[in-house]
Every structure is written in C-alpha cells, then in structure tokens.
Amino acid sequence: MASAAARPGRVNEDFTGAVPTAVVLVDGAGIPGTEAICRHGVAWYATRLGGTLLGLLSLTPDRSLPALLAEAIDRVTDDHRDTCDVTNPVSPSATVAVLRRCGALVDYLVLGDSFVVLDRTDGDPLVVTDPREVVISRSYQAAVEATVAGSDEYHRLLRDLRANRNRPGGFWLAKDDPRAADEATTGSCPVAELAGAALLSNGASRIVDRFGLTDWPGALAVLASSGPAEVIRRVRQAEARTGVRADDASVAYCTDLDGA
After folding, report:
1. Is the pLDDT of residue 31 over 80?
2. pTM of the prediction?
3. pLDDT digits over 227-251, tens only?
4. Which residues are registered as beta bridge partners of 18?
5. One-character DSSP codes across 19-33
C-alpha cells in the first residue's frame, strides 16, 4: 500500500488498511465549511470508517459487504452524532472500496468514484467504479470554473452540487445514512481467475482516467514491477507538469490472492 497527501503539510484524508482476508480503501470528502459542521474533520471520518469496517470484516466474515458497510456507517455516525451536525449536506463523507477473499471467491464493493481493478488471467482487467458523481459534477464544472473561488456564488454552486448526494437520481457516498451502502456496486470473481487486484482512490486513478499516462493493463504492470508508490509518483509528475491541482492519492495492491 502507498498513500500520499495532496501536498506537504496537508492532512491526508484517505485511509488504507488490511486484515489477512480483506483490504479497505476510503477516500474522505469535504468542502469549505465542513470544519464548522464537524469538529472531528474529514480525515477522522475516513479513518474511523475504514478502521470500523476492517474490524467488522474480521469479526463477521460471512455477512455481505453492503451489510458490513451499512453497519460501519451507522457506528461512525453514532460516534459523533451528539457533537456534530451529521445530517448537514457538508458534513464529512467518503467513497469506499473493499476487496475480500471468501473461500474460492473474491468479493468486491465500490461506493462512489474509488476503483477496484481485478487483474484477470484470461482477458482484460475488470474495472469497477461508480461514475455518477463524476457525471453530475461535470454539469457544474463550467459554472464553477467561471466563478471566483470563495465567493458567495462559488459556495452556492458547491451546495447545489452536494444537494445531489445520497438521493435518487444523484450520487451516493458513505456519510450518515447507512442505506447508502445498498447503492454500492458489488460482485464476486473466482480467485483462480485472478492474478491480482488493486484498489485506488480517484487521486491515484488519475494515472489512467485523468492524464492517460497508461491504460488499466499498463497500470497493473506498473504495480507489478514497481509498486503502488510508483503510480503516485507518476501522477504527481503529471499534476506538476499540467498545473492540475493535486489530490490525496492512495493505492492498495493485492497479490497471492489464493494464499492462506
């Protein structure tokens, strides 16, 4: 695993962690004003959610991934319900990616625009993500870019965008409502058909979907030869070269999926 904050001195709002049979990646999300709503912050939410989910994956391995995620969301919400305005639209939220080996199968879950990439031995990689937030955000992009950052209009546009979160016709993230877990993309694949797998936050997936430095088979080849840190290094180089604002970036790379 490798994870890097967007820039030095900034708190990393991603979380990655693993237990012997499962890996979790959480990409925390917040917008200006979150600090006034939740005294704990986005990094706390992502870490708390990821750690809780890993514990549940260890203790109750037979439950479905959406059920475990729903319980983790509920527990973390309870942890700060009495001190923070958890239902406010700008309270902390997160995307989630999970991979679990369960007998002869590998189960996966993706909520939001993080990625699970399964390296299949016979065929192209299976790339799993939820594009709904990306699609909706693009409809606001031109207006946001034409507005002065920090202005009242800028914040209004961001509030309008966030109003699409966790509602029918919008996009879904982990936040305060455990029912969001039912909107996750899930599936299973036989372990015998996989050479490996990767979980990436959208800051790391830029190597393919933002900058086009390689395709998904190429990204898996980089992981196999040089490891997760190399993916992040190449993304940082592209961000610096193009002037694109950096984002927190995390990668978990899994091999020997059929091991004990």
Report:
1. no
2. 0.93
3. 999 999 999 999 999 999 899 999 9
4. 23
5. ETTEEEEEEEE--TT
DSSP character at residue 40: S
Q: Provide the pLDDT for residue 32.
A: 65
Contact indicator for 32, 38 with CB cutoff of 8 Å: no
Please report how many Cα atoms fall inside a 13 Å half-sphere around the Cα of residue 43, on the Cβ side. Answer: 8
Q: What CA dihedral angle connects 231, 233, 235 and 236, to 10 degrees?
A: 160
Instruction: Identify any residues that bridge with 110 across adjacent strands, giving them in sequence order.
Output: 97, 185
Summarize the chain as % helix, strand, coil (round to 5): 40, 25, 35
- Condensed to tens digits (0 to 9), the pLDDT of residues 34-66 reads 777 888 989 999 999 999 999 999 998 889 999
Helix 216-226 / helix 228-242 crossing angle, nearest 10 deg = 120
Exposure string of 83-98, with b = 16+ CB inside 10 Å and e = fewer, is: ebebebbbbbbbbbbb
* Sign of CA pseudo-dihedral 143, 147, 150, 152: negative
Calpha distance 13→43 (Å, rounded):
4
DSSP state of 101: E
Helices and strands in the chain: count of H runs, count of E runs: 8, 10
Q: At what angle do helices 42-59 and 65-80 cross, to 10 degrees?
A: 130
Contact present, 73 and 80 (Cβ < 8 Å)? no
| Token pair 């592209």 in the structure block, residue | 238
Pair 95, 24: CB distance under 8 Å: no
